[in-house]
Amino acid sequence: MSTETVAAPTKSAVPDPGRWLALAIIAVAQLLIVLDATIVNIALPTAQKALHISDADRQWMVTAYTLAFGGLLLLGGRIADFTGRKRAFIIGLIGFAAASAVGGGAVNEGMLFAARGAQGVFAALMAPAALSLLTVTFTDARERARAFGVYGAIAGGGGAVGLLMGGVLTQYASWRWCLLVSAPIAIVAAVFALRYVNESRAEGDTRYDIPGAVTSTLGLVGLVYGFTKADSAGWTSATTLSLLAVSVILLIAFVVIELRTRHPLLPMRVILNNNRGGSYLASLLVGVGMFGVFLFLTYYMQINLGYSALMTGVAFLPFTAGIIIGAGVSAPLTPRIGPRIPMVAGLVLTTIGMVLLTQIGVDTGYWSHVMPAVLVISFGMGITFGPLSNTALVGVASHDAGVASALVNSTQQIGGSLGTALLNTIAASALTSYLADHAAGKAPSAAVTAAGTVHSYTVAFWVSAALIAVAAVLTAVLVRARPHELSATEGIPAGF
What we know:
The chain is mainly alpha-helical and 496 residues long.
């Protein structure tokens, strides 16, 4: 999102009579964006089997979306600001619908992954435009707070809705409908947006930081692809090392470009503050550690526990409950004691929950091992998210508020992309090693394969626990904001 995204209220004192319908349209778009980050998780085992996708490549169904979304979000916001937010919003909806239709009709894995990437590209255009439109549509402080409350509720709870909807569609229709369902909804939203959403755009220099966008996105794609190739080629292979080296060079080039350009995509001053930098690092590490949980638990529940797609979606509902309860605990505490203690406490609880997940086995059950861990993890995350989002705006100048807020979403999406690729590779390597050690040179039995599969999940959970523990330590060291320093920037909803 650009530095101009958070606009001042419009000069007109007369409220837009269609503002609440505009809110409904924007809320639908936000729901689509959040849904598509999780809805395919439940469909993944079925889609993998139908399109003959390998274990090493299955993560691209998730990663292609989150990587494109997170990597292009800042550029998408700047494009929306200067080409017109309504125009960008409608283009994003139409493009998202087309990509969803292509993905639903995919005949091979390449077509599916490309469609998921295209969904992420158009979501990166649509999401910041939607947020900006809310800001300029609701000029009354109370109404704006109510509108952002609706927006935030959808952003927070939409993921669980996606998991449940993915289960229903996969079981009673087809995994393809997890993608196809977005197309008609997006088209209807675009039609209504033409009539009821007003255009707005930012003034000023319209130059874009294209070199920054290209180097950062290609660097992140190279990093994810390098992690993926490590499973088949090995961590020390020339292919893997070359990909990782090129990605590091591109990301270094991105930093150099941002330091030198007059119109940076990511002003370095935003992230070099201790409080804000600590929150972004924590957000990135949480993304790395958390996205893999949904992936591996989905496979564990469907393959090892024998759950249907619908039951798997239902089994994730306690995660939403934990988030809501944790957020309710954190909200009144943060303004009184500051963000550091709630953030550290939440991350420590999340780490404990991850460790609990490492205790699952072939013969363990959902109620005894999965649900308690999920509740602890989600409660910890609920405590963490609010103060983390608030800390991302501590001391930020008004002209940097948009990019500072968007960075929370970007780091979570990018972390999710990197984490899904990395943890999937680690899990696949753990499975290969386990089978080699326990099959005694013969074809592994079903029992050995099942035990090895669960072992691979627990290894991934241990890595996730370690990453989130590091986030807790970094938060304790870097975040020092006092209660009175917490941002009250008008128009910025926490958590975006």
